[in-house]
Design brief:
Layout (H helix, E strand, L loop, with lengths): L25 E5 L23 H11 L3 E5 L9 H8 L5 E5 L7 H9 L2 E7 L10 H10 L6 E5 L5 H10 L4 E3 L14 H12 L3 E4 L3 H4 L7 H13 L4 E2 L16 H5 L2 H4 L3 H16 L5
Parallel strand pairs: 1-2, 2-3, 3-4, 4-5, 5-6, 6-7, 7-8
Helix pairs in contact: 5-6
Bound molecules: (1E,3Z)-4-hydroxybuta-1,3-diene-1,2,4-tricarboxylic acid.
The site of (1E,3Z)-4-hydroxybuta-1,3-diene-1,2,4-tricarboxylic acid has 10 residues, from loops.
Length: 294
């Protein structure tokens, strides 16, 4: 791969947000890319971004007023979690992570991921990102990680939610849904996508979600009014199982790169009280990722 073929999907100088997060705030969905010289991308990678390493991530964390990160293994690194583990190791205890694993992974390898700060695995169902998503084998993995106190993170789009319901119901550990299962927020808070997603949240008390990615989900774009209208009621109705994250470095968003400061300024519009903001940014992610300190 040549340098010229690699793309950048993040702004180099994000604005300073007007909103100041509470002390201890966690960016619970972000990624690192590379550095590729040390941690090459997977041969199956569907996109090839520029390096977005831990130092840049931690500088962004500080700039935005956050204290901790949850680093989600990005699909471009496949099941080689070394870039994520490297970032966690450099964070001085301020980052934990979500791995993507080969279902044949051994218990000893799972133990070593746990020692490296991993607290869950991600199952990705987006065809543009992964070649296959074997539900039966994912369920086997989900059964095996219970002993570590981990959860699973699931990424899918709204059009396959109904097909996935039996799979999601069978997962024997807590489930976190990325980007609310990508609803069409243009339908509003009572549209079919949000209704379908609420049915999932109502089906079990240990299904969590990330109120993330206005940049991906809002047909209107900045300042994301449609996202706010659709998502605020969800945050208010399920305040103890919602997380927030930047999604930096915004994989595959090079056509519409968001300003991270602008994303942070959406927070007080979807979580309008200080109590809700504290749950969203501190209490909930701490319970899930740093239960030892929560
Ligand atoms: C996200 C969204 C995307 C990419 C990935 O692992 C990934 O490559 O998650 C996407 O392209 O929608 O959550 O980062």
């Amino acid at each position: 791969m040549t340098e010229a073929a690699r793309v950048r999907s993040w702004v180099e100088r994000p604005s300073k947000p007007r909103y100041v997060p509470p002390p201890g705030a966690v960016d619970a969905h972000c990624h690192v890319f590379g550095p590729m010289a040390e941690f090459p991308f997977s041969p199956k990678a569907k996109y090839h971004p520029e390096d977005a390493g831990p130092e840049t991530l931690f500088a962004l964390r500080d700039h935005l007023g956050f204290s901790r990160n949850v680093i989600v293994q990005a699909s471009c690194h496949g099941t080689d979690n070394r870039a994520t583990l490297n970032a966690i190791a450099r964070s001085q205890g301020k980052a934990r992570g979500i791995a993507v694993v080969d279902p044949a992974i051994s218990d000893a390898e799972l133990d070593s991921l746990h020692a490296g700060g991993i607290r869950g695995v991600r199952f990705n169902f987006l065809k543009r990102l992964v070649d296959d998503a074997p539900k039966d084998r994912f369920l086997e993995v989900a059964r095996r990680i219970g002993r570590l106190g981990w959860h699973v993170v699931v990424y899918f789009e709204a059009d396959i939610l109904d097909e996935l319901r039996p799979f999601l119901e069978a997962i024997p550990v807590p489930v976190v849904i990325d980007h609310m299962g990508r609803p069409d927020v243009g339908q509003g808070p009572d549209g079919p996508d949000m209704k379908g997603f609420r049915r999932l949240l109502d089906s079990r008390e240990d299904v969590w979600f990330k109120a993330t990615c206005p940049d991906r989900l809002s047909p209107q774009g900045e300042p994301y009014d449609d996202f706010v209208v659709a998502v605020r009621p969800l945050v208010e109705d399920y305040p103890n199982r919602v997380l927030w994250g930047t999604d930096w470095p915004h994989p595959n968003m090079e056509h519409r790169i968001p300003d991270d400061g602008g994303l942070v300024d959406v927070i007080p519009r979807i979580a309008v009280s200080e109590a809700l903001q504290r749950q969203l940014l501190v209490d909930n992610p701490m319970r899930l990722y740093w239960p030892d300190e929560a």
